[in-house]
Amino acid sequence: MLSGFYTAGSGILNQQRNVNIIGNNISNNQTVGYKAQRMIQTTYEHNFLTRLENGVYHRIGEGDPAVYTEEVETLHDESYLKETENPYDMALVGKGYFNIAGNNNTYLTRNGNFNIDAEGYLVLDGIGRVQGRNGDLNVGGSDFSITPHGLVYNSDGVFVDRLLVTAPAEGTEIRKFDNGMFIAENAEIMDVTTVYQNHLEQSNVDMNEEYTGLIEAQRALQACASALKMVDKINEKAAGLSSIS
Q: What are the φ and ψ backbone dihedral angles of 190, each rounded to 5 degrees?
């Protein structure tokens, strides 16, 4: 009977985590450059189900005693671009990420909702300075321009630097942080990624898919909770019968 507790209990924990992940996707639907996440679940040891009849065990099916979250996958699919009137806004088309230096780390992000600090450096508010291939990118003021190849020119038309766009090397572990930030220990420079000034990449959250997944997860959560109550009642009755005997 204890296996029933484990099965229903693991289902509750797993589906609650799924609901939280989907809810986070929905809440970030309007977050610039946000990448949706998906829960990948797996099971503990697979068991054969048997029935004892006339002293002989007969196989009647298969089952999994418990499930758990194997990993939470980030969907790195590109989304559509929205045109803005802000010269600091940038978007990437193709493989690659902006590089932001902050808090002793270099973060990767598709969020190009940049600003400028008092010293003329391009920054992502709350995170750090945008990186060119020669370090912190100083654009001087709002009259700078950037070509589709990422070449940055100041208001006098003088070349400043080239925007640093990188992508994690194949097989590299990518760690996800809040606000659409990622860290990868081994990143490669991307020369073919196109840069669009006065544009922002929107989140890749599909609301229809998220709402459908949320309904499924909530129903599964309710089913596991009902199963747990049922197992508890059966266990209670079994304990009562054993005490009588």
A: -105, 120
